[in-house]
């Protein structure tokens, strides 16, 4: 029942597709071919519905084309969509210098205390100066423990009178504390240095 | 510098619509795959969602290029072969995330719009 469309309708479709072909000349070839294929199929599908449906539910070809919109507008949407769009998975990029700086800060906090304590102080200053950490992280990094792993050295020196079990526990906590804090700081820095685009599905509305 | 003028809201809504449209497409594919004509026609029939149905095809193409939807060809007994779209795992993830964010944003804006003009300290 291909006769559902008259000559006038055929001409409308041909004109429409010609306009689409002309307007889409600037698109990349594969995108252009895909768009042309989809629009042609859309019209062919509407034509099939027209042929099989009763007259009361069929949609005149002029209406089908009007609902599709101007070919030039479709091509403009395709051009806008070429690279930018509402859902753009953004590759996670971490500026290497920041990463080195952040890692250096954490290392100083961890073992800097062994350099007559000065390394730890430098680490603490860098920690508080960095925008990559929240205040809660900065407090954590500073308070557990001041001096970092160097604080553990104080245990044998001042803890000689302690029962061995307590001294051992203190030693373990003394070592574990800074390592846990350092791990947390590094993970936070890692995430933050990826910036607001770390979210793979961040919204980037098309212009 | 912010300057709100009459008519700007309409423009803003148009931009917002363009921003959420991809997620609406993903949502329509959540429960079943659909072929292009079917999907586009349904979206076109949703009040105020699209101005031209044809503009959805470039969007579908991009969602496919980004791996958010997958396509398969199937023969049809009543018309031309159909390109079916279905949600890929990445699309599912994006939709889940958007659904949560959207709910929060919608609630916050609704609250603010409803409460504006009331002095909370009175």
Shape of chain A: rod-shaped
Number of helices of chain B: 4
- Rg of chain A, alpha carbons: 33 Å
- Tell me the series of helices and strands of chain B, N- to C-terminal: HEHHEEH
The CA-CA distance between the termini of chain B, in Å, is 31 Å
Question: Main β-sheet of chain B: number of strands, strand sense, barrel status?
Answer: 3 strands, antiparallel
Q: What is the number of strand segments of chain A?
A: 0
Rg calculated over all Cα atoms of chain B: 18 Å
DSSP helix count of chain A?
A: 9
> Distance between the terminal alpha carbons of chain A, to the nearest Å?
44 Å
Listing every helix as H and every strand as E from the N terminus to the C terminus, the arrangement of chain A reads: HHHHHHHHH
SS-derived structural category of chain A: mainly alpha
How can the largest sheet of chain A be summarized? none
**What are the low-pLDDT stretches of chain B, counting only 5+ consecutive residues below 50?**
none
Helix content of chain A: 55-70%
- The total domain count of chain B is 1
| CATH architecture designation of chain B | Orthogonal Bundle
Count every beta strand of chain B, where a strand is a DSSP E run of 2 or more residues: 3
SS content category of chain B: mainly alpha
Determine the strand fraction of chain B and express it as a percent band.
5-15%
Overview of the molecule:
The complex is a heterodimer of chains A (207) and B (122). With 207 residues, chain A is an all-alpha fold. Chain A is built from nine helices and no strands. In chain A, helix 8 runs antiparallel to helix 9 (164-193). With 122 residues, chain B is mainly alpha-helical. Chain B has four helices and three strands. Chain B has helices at residues 8-28, 36-44, 56-65, 89-115; strands at 34-35, 69-74, 82-87. In chain B, strand 2 and strand 3 (82-87) form a beta hairpin. The mean pLDDT of chain B is 89. At the A-B interface, helix 2 and helix 4 of A face helix 1, helix 2, helix 3 and helix 4 of B.
């Amino acid at each position: 029942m291909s006769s559902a469309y008259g000559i006038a309708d055929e001409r409308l479709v041909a004109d429409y597709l010609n306009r689409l072909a002309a307007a889409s000349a600037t698109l990349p070839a594969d995108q252009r071919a895909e768009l042309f294929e989809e629009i042609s199929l859309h019209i062919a599908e509407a034509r099939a519905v027209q042929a099989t449906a009763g007259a009361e539910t069929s949609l005149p070809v002029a209406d089908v084309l009007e609902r599709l919109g101007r070919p030039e507008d479709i091509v403009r949407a395709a051009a806008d969509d070429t690279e930018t769009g509402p859902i753009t998975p953004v590759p996670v990029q971490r500026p290497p210098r920041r990463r080195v700086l952040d890692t250096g800060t954490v290392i100083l906090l961890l073992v800097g205390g062994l350099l007559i304590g000065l390394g730890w102080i430098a680490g603490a200053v860098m920690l508080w100066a960095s925008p990559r950490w929240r205040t809660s992280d900065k407090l954590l990094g500073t308070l557990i423990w001041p001096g970092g792993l160097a604080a553990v050295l104080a245990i044998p020196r001042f803890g000689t009178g302690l029962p061995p079990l307590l001294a051992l526990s203190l030693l373990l906590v003394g070592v574990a504390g800074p390592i846990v804090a350092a791990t947390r700081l590094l993970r936070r820095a890692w995430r933050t240095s990826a910036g607001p685009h770390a979210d793979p599905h961040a919204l980037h509305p098309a212009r | 510098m912010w300057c709100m003028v009459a008519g700007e809201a309409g423009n803003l809504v148009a931009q917002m619509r363009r921003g959420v449209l991809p997620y609406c497409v993903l949502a329509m594919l959540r429960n079943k795959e659909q072929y292009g004509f079917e999907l586009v026609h349904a979206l076109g029939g949703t009040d105020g969602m699209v101005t031209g149905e044809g503009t959805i095809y470039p969007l579908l193409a991009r969602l496919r290029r980004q791996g958010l939807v997958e396509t398969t060809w199937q023969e049809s007994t009543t018309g031309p072969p159909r390109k079916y779209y279905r949600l890929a795992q990445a699309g599912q993830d994006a939709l889940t995330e958007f659904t949560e964010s959207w709910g929060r944003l919608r609630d916050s804006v609704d609250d603010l719009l409803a409460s504006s003009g009331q002095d909370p300290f009175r």
